Amino acid sequence: YKDQNVLKSKSLCVISDFLEHNTAVVHTFQKHLVSEIKYTLPAVEKLIYFSDGASSQYKNKKNFANLCRHSDDFGLDAEWNFFASCHGKSPCDGVGGTSKREAARASLQRPFKDQILTPLQLYEFCSENISGIKYLFVPKQEVETAIMRLSGRFQFCIPVPSTREKHRFIPV
């Protein structure tokens, strides 16, 4: 983003004790990410997502239903772009890799206690010790609530034909 004509970036990392990867988790994380983006950039009007095409999380009928309701849910328009499978890495891979590497190193250097063993401990360590990345913690209960709330929306989703061949989705 630009701030007073200076190009800047902000790295965000979401940590949770909900250990499944699914569309409801993505939606719950989006709630926190969108809030942070709106705080940083109050004039933002549209989000453009880029992700891999993992069908369990992103490239599926449930996520397309969420994308169509993005404006209602978050107050911003959105589109979603998918990288072709097995193509390249993105900056978010570095954010996650740095966070895990630094936490693993710190945990291994601790003598026999205070190892980093839980998602909450990981969040606390990263927040206190890694600069340049903003960490957000989303508890399992919040994701479970979102799963229940979104179940009605997901119940009526229908598959979108030919999604494997498509790499960009813009709700109309």
Rounded to the nearest angstrom, the radius of gyration is: 18 Å
Q: How many helices?
A: 6
Largest beta-sheet details: 3 strands, mixed
Helix and strand run: EEEHEHHEHHEHE
Shape: globular
Strand content: 15-25%
Average pLDDT across residues? 91
Number of E strands: 7
Give me the secondary-structure category: alpha/beta
Low-confidence stretches: none
Helical content, roughly? 40-55%
Distance between the termini: 26 Å
Strand order, largest beta sheet: 4-5-7
How would you characterize the overall build of this protein?
There is one protein chain. The chain has 172 residues and is α/β, with parallel strands linked by helices. The chain has six helices and seven strands. It has helices spanning 23-40, 61-68, 70-74, 91-109, 119-129, 140-155; strands spanning 2-3, 6-7, 11-16, 46-51, 77-82, 133-138, 168-169. The chain has a three-stranded mixed beta sheet. A hairpin with a 2-residue loop joins strand 1 and strand 2 (6-7). Helix 1 (23-40) crosses helix 6. It is globular. The mean pLDDT is 91.
Key structural traits:
17% strand; 7 strands; alpha/beta; single chain; 172 residues; 3-stranded mixed sheet; 45% helix
Topology overview:
Elements lengths: L1 E2 L2 E2 L3 E6 L6 H18 L5 E6 L9 H8 L1 H5 L2 E6 L8 H19 L9 H11 L3 E6 L1 H16 L12 E2 L3
Parallel strand pairs: 3-6, 4-5
Antiparallel strand pairs: 1-2, 5-7
Helix pairs in contact: 1-6
Short description:
The chain is an alpha/beta fold and 172 residues long. It is built from 6 helices and 7 strands. Helix 1 (23-40) packs across helix 6 (140-155).
